[in-house]
């Protein structure tokens, strides 16, 4: 839908009106036949039709193009009233800047920011409303530190709230202690498995060293026996030599 023509100051060229809603073009698109439409209007039209609503020429979404630059410039220069005119805003500005103004307009109706409050208030009066809003939050005046809504004041009990908070803290502490305990047990189990594994490796190495030592002792005994045999053979040879 376009901008209500009643909001505009002065004459508005016929070529700047949507051919469907007959209001001033909003997000304009142009067909090959040069008829212009609001983007929302023409897209809604083409859901059920396949031609231009003005001259019935066949058109398709893919044939739609942005408005000619000179027409776009003429459109942006149009002057119109703020949509909050009925609430007291007297601002008149160009179509090009109207959206920016209305986003910041002091007369805009905005919702209260307090949870649970359904009041719609003018932006300029928001601070005053927040100061008295029955859903505003504040800290308990008795010093318990609990955040209150004015509507809850009658039901608030500092002792009960602090007891609840204490129970929550106790539960959280127990959970953390249990988590730390499980983590330490997991670490100890991991270290224990590592120590057992290292002990097994060392035991295997010791057994291997013992086996090597046994083989070496056997080799030494064999060498000593061979040496005795060799000495005896030399002595025998020496005797035979002397006898000769």
Describe the structure.
With 244 residues, this protein is mainly alpha-helical. Among the domains are: 5-104, Zinc/RING finger domain, C3HC4 (zinc finger) (Herpes Virus-1), CATH 3.30.40; 109-149, Herpes Virus-1 (2-Layer Sandwich). 50% of the residues lie in helices and 11% in strands. The protein is built from five helices and nine strands. It has helices spanning 39-48, 69-77, 95-104, 126-132, 158-243; strands at residues 28-30, 36-38, 65-66, 79-81, 92-94, 109-111, 120-122, 137-139, 147-149. The strands form four sheets. Strands 2-1-3 form a three-stranded antiparallel β-sheet. A two-stranded antiparallel ribbon has the order 4-5. The chain is elongated and about 155 Å long. The chain starts with 27 loop residues before the first strand and ends with a helix. A zinc finger (TRAF-type) spans 101-144. GO terms for molecular function: ligase activity; zinc ion binding. It holds the Pfam family zf-TRAF. Residues 18-56 form the RING-type domain. It comes from Prunella fulvescens (Brown accentor).
């Amino acid at each position: 839908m376009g901008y209500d023509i009643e909001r505009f100051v002065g004459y508005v060229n016929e070529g700047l009106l949507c051919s469907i809603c007959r209001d001033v073009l909003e997000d304009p698109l142009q067909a090959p036949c040069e008829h212009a439409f609001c983007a929302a209007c023409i897209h809604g039209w083409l859901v059920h039709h396949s031609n231009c609503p003005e001259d019935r020429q066949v058109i398709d979404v893919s044939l739609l193009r942005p408005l000619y630059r000179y027409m776009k410039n003429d459109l942006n220069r149009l002057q119109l009233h703020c949509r909050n005119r009925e609430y007291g805003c007297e601002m008149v500005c160009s179509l090009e800047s109207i959206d920016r103004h209305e986003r910041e307009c002091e007369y805009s109706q905005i919702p209260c920011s307090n949870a649970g409050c359904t009041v719609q208030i003018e932006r300029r009066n928001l601070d005053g409303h927040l100061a008295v809003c029955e859903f505003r939050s504040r800290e308990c005046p008795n010093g318990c530190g609990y955040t209150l809504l004015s509507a809850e004041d009658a039901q608030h009990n500092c002792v009960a709230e602090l007891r609840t908070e204490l129970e929550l803290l106790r539960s959280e502490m127990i959970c953390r202690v249990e988590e730390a305990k499980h983590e330490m047990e997991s670490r100890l189990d991991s270290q224990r498995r590592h120590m057992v594994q290292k002990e097994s490796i060392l035991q295997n190495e010791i057994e291997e060293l013992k086996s090597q030592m046994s083989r070496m002792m056997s080799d030494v005994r064999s060498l000593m026996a061979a040496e005795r045999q060799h000495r005896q053979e030399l002595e025998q040879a020496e005797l035979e030599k002397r006898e000769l």
